[in-house]
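Researcher: Structure prediction, please.
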Amino acid sequence: MHLCKLYNLTEKDIIGHYEGHQKGIASNHSDPRNWFPKHGKNMDTFRADVKATLCCKNDSKKTPASPPSSSPTKLYRVQVGAYAVKANADAMLKKVKAAGFTDAFIKTE
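Model: Predicted structure follows.
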């Protein structure tokens, strides 16, 4: 719930690795999709639980969390791949940007 509040996310923003893989933005590994059925759950029930918790927390009389500052002291970068062939890196960058991650970029080392 902390990340949802911090980044103003809802249950609609939550996807599993498999769903991300279907969009071309994540690898298909150790997905909760394989674990949830053992406990009578799935990504949809998880999102419903998140929605219910966010709803209840938003209705509480607690002081709302302050929004993140506009200039964070730390940045956490997410890498989606490392490629030896630039054309492959360009192709992944195109997929990531098409998925809505407009700040994505290629860094050469």
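Model: The chain has two domains: 2-66, 77-109.
Researcher: Thanks, that helps.
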